[in-house]
Amino acid sequence: MTDPKPLFILNGPNLNRLGKREPEIYGYTTLGEIETWCKQAAGKRPVEFRQTNSEERLIEWVHEAIDEDAAGIIINPAAFTFTSLALLDALKMFPGPIIEFHISNVHRREPIYHRSYVSMRATAVIAGLGATGYPTAVHAIEALIEQNKV
Fold it and tell me: Is residue 105 very low, low, confident or very high in pLDDT (cuts 50, 70, 90)?
């Protein structure tokens, strides 16, 4: 049996400040705690869990997921969700399932948060479950990966 393909979990700007940043919206859970939960939820599947404040680096990681033939991508692009056509173009090149993830329910927030470029490519969107929604996203992408097997 071959080793399972990796799952990329990519996080955008300011998510390194989770636990301190606007806890009334994002809670007190840190990104380190979320990474632990995601790796536990993934079981034997390898997880590349990353965070950056750089749009360029986030796009390069999507390219890396393509080059490494990753099984799927869970991406919380944060502010780049609403601003980055370059990120959308990179995600369009990824052949596998993509889950766009947001800790808060972006549709209950200010109108600027209502138009997602990433949603134009995402297989599914999960929003509003809080930090504990990350493992839910891992289970959901595993189901999408399984559905796409021939």
Answer: confident
* Catalytic residue status for 117: no
- Which residues, other chains included, contact 10 with Cβ-Cβ below 8 Å and sequence gap of 6+? 50, 51, 52, 58, 61, 62, 65, 73, 74, 75, 76, 77
Number of domains making up the chain? 1
Q: Does the annotation place 103 within a ligand binding site?
A: yes
The mean predicted confidence, pLDDT, of the chain is: 93
Residue 1 lies in a domain: no
- Residue 63 annotated as catalytic: no
Cross-strand pairs, 51? 11
Q: Does residue 2 lie within any of the structural domains?
A: no
Residue 29 lies in a domain: yes
Q: Would you say residue 102 lies in a domain?
A: yes
H helices, E strands: number in the chain: 5, 5
The answer to whether 11 is annotated as binding is: no
User: Does 147 have pLDDT greater than 50?
Assistant: yes
Owning domain of residue 54: 7-147
Spatial separation of the C-alpha atoms in residues 20 and 1, rounded to whole Å? 43
The residues with which 65 forms a beta bridge, in sequence order, are none
Please tell me which residue, 40 or 104, carries the higher pLDDT value: 40
